[in-house]
Amino acid sequence: MTTFGAVLRRGRGWLPLISIAALLGSLTVLALPTVLGRAVDAVVAEEDPSAILASPGRWVLIACGLIALGIVCDVIEVIAGTACVAGTTAWLRRRLVSQVLAAGPAGTRHFATGDLVSRVSSNATDAARAGPATITAVTATVPPIGSLVLLFLISPWLALAFLGGILLVVAVLWFFARRTAEISLAYQQTQGRIAAALTEALAGLRTITAAGTAVREEQRVLRLLPQLHAHGLQTWQMLARSGAQAAVVGPLVLIAVLAVGGIELVNRQITPGEYFAAAQYAVIGAGLGGLTGVLGQLARGQAGIARISEVTAVPAVGYGALTLPAGPGRLVFDEVTVRAGDELLLDRVQLDLPGGAAVAVVGPNGAGKSVLAAVAGRLQDPDSGQVRLDGVPLAGLSHEALRTAVKCAFERPALIGSTVGDAISVGSAQPEQLLASARATHVHEFVSRMPDGYSTPLTEAPLSGGEAQRLGLARAWQAERLLILDDATSSLDTATELQISETLMGDRQQRTRLIITHRAGTAARADLVVWLDQGRVRAVGRHHELWRDPCYRKAFG
Questions:
Q1: For residue 241, pLDDT beyond 60
Q2: Is a pLDDT exceeding 70 seen at residue 288?
Q3: Percentages helix, strand, coil for the chain, rounded to the nearest 5?
Q4: 60: phi then psi, degrees, rounded to nearest 5
């Protein structure tokens, strides 16, 4: 889980430097009025003319040195702050992406794709600014506190007048910070929902165009824009209101200190130089109202951390340390139950599938076929029960052992990588394995016709739905023990589907094949058929045996 403290600790390489630079800058701001006040006193003092010229000059030189030091501190603070934000942003993005991938599809199903992109892109940057903003906010209190102490040393009455005004400024800032944190979180959440809707629209752009619903889809994507505008307007209104209040309170602080200081000066309780210094300290205190921008940045950072924390709090899929013994690929579902809220997706499924068999899983829509495939591939863990491969629980296998033995192909495969070859190998297969998988799934036939063959960039490869499915199948073909096909041949033409089906059924490697299908022909060629209905196993047997049941025939439409 990502916390505010974790973000601060991540910037530990830069935050101390930012703190030192900011603190030195604040001390410079505090010292400057006193030095200039001494110069004023030296000028008005009734001393030898040569001394008058020498003494102010010395104080002016010190003031110039302080100004130069302040500029250097500001430059260091800006450079270190930029480096800190860049490094922390990169760390947060890596952590978010790593967590999303580690949590798997089951862990991230509650987050829309566009919303996750929004958290990785903009929210990570906001969160990374929390560290420098915290340092700035804390060190910004040093000048007012120091001003109060130094005014007290000049005159307790000046400190009292200053304190009354500063308390009003602090009240304005406290109210601003509290409200801005709420508004910033609401703004980021709305922004994430808009990004999610846009991502959905882009994914379905072909369907939207074909249906002629572009205008309606535009309205759907942008329907939250007024809400986003309202949150943004609230932020600016809060900023404007707080800025106006601070602008009113600030001069009141200055007037109060000048009035009290004027009386003290007339009564010769303070010197002209001290009066000048008091006026400068009043200006410093009044400038505290300018912290609204920093506090706004801090509020956005806290909101960003909260949204990132929602993702990093999702537990990663845990793996064991076991490896698979030699075996045929026997797959056992032992009282497997999967729920989604109150709905039972799989209800105490009990199956013992022989190793090396081609097993077709059939049933009507909503029967639980894809859920069974997901559990078999450990893309989702059951709520109760256990899945074993050759006697070893899937949850006990190491990541490498599981993903080497078990691979999945899907109805709509996501092709990953830069080239067609990358989409098949995913960076792990050797060239000869890639070619063998491509030939077995009849991918080589169309890839070899491409200008650059397997080196053809995916963005330039004109792939049909069936060709994309074959690429996904070729990627999964490298499974050593269990090959899972979740309707992975639904977009193939009849001839190609028959060729691949024959390859599947006559698998020379004798792996167990779990094939989710809606086609009676595929079920007929399988060694065994599992008939699911409403999350339960209705029957297990050969296709020709089950075909006698009218309800079974109805499952194929």
A1: yes
A2: no
A3: 65, 10, 25
A4: -65, -40
Q: In this structure, are residues 150 and 162 in contact, taking their beta carbons and an 8 Å threshold?
A: no
pTM, two decimal places: 0.76
Rounded to whole angstroms, the Cα distance separating 205 from 336 reads 38
DSSP for 401-432, written as a single string = HHHHHEEEEESS----SSBHHHHHHTTTS-HH
Sign (positive/negative) of CA torsion 193, 195, 196, 198? Answer: positive
Q: What is the CA radius of gyration of the chain?
A: 35
Choose among 521, 131, 522, 309: nearest CA to 513.
522
The DSSP line for 169-202 is HHHHHHHHHHHHHHHHHHHHHHHHHHHHHHHHHH
Average pLDDT over residues 287-295: 69
The span from the CA of 248 to the CA of 254, in Å, is 11
| Angular region, 47: left φ>0, alpha ψ -120 to 50, beta rest | beta
- DSSP string of 230-275? HHHHHHHHHHHHHHHHHHHHHHHHHHHHHHHHHHHHHTTSS-HHHH
**Are the C-beta atoms of 516 and 369 separated by less than 8 Å?**
yes
Per-residue model confidence as pLDDT tens digits over 21-31: 988 988 888 88
How far apart CA 292 and CA 242 sit, in angstroms, is: 7
pLDDT the model gives residue 56: 64
Number of H helices and E strands in the chain, helices first, is 23, 10
**Among 185, 166, 293, 169, residue whose Cα is nearest residue 239:** 293
